[in-house]
Amino acid sequence: MFVIKKQKKGGTKTGVRLTAFSLAVMVCLGGCASTGTNLPSDSVTFLTNDYRFKSVMQSNDDVKGWARDSLETINELQYQLELERNK
């Protein structure tokens, strides 16, 4: 379930950053689901080296917390994929 909060003045930049980061995560996970060749060897490093990640880290604590949780989830999913590939 998602809770939508009323944005404060200047919240549009955070929304755009969050959307950009969400798209990056979806592209990464989409690559995981389709084939193994689209998955970078270290997705978390790939995403944190993206030029847009600096904007995420300069955002409010909610966005940074969401990004941290997302990266940890991606890391765990990548680990599980590698275990399956090595069976």
Can you tell me about this structure?
The structure is a single chain. The chain has 87 residues and is mostly helical. It has a domain at 36-87. 69% of the residues lie in helices and 0% in strands. The chain is built from four helices and no strands. It has helices at 11-34, 43-48, 53-57, 61-85. Helix 1 packs parallel to helix 4 (61-85). The longest helix is centred in the C-terminal third of the chain and has 25 residues, at 61-85. The radius of gyration is 14 Å and the shape is elongated. 9% of the residues are buried. Mean pLDDT is 75; it is low at 1-7.
Notable traits:
about 90 residues, mainly alpha, elongated
DSSP strand (E) fraction? under 5%
Number of strands: 0
Distance between the termini: 35 Å
Q: What is the multimeric organization of the chains shown?
A: single chain
Helical content band? 55-70%
Low-confidence stretches: 1-7
Q: What Rg, in angstroms, do the CA atoms define?
A: 14 Å
Using the alpha-carbon principal axes, give the shape: elongated
Q: Write down the overall mean pLDDT.
A: 75
Category from helices, strands and their pairing? mainly alpha
How many H/I helical runs?
A: 4
Note the main sheet: none
* H/E element order: HHHH
Task: Chart the SSEs and their pairings.
Elements: H1 11-34, H2 43-48, H3 53-57, H4 61-85
Helix pairs in contact: 1-4
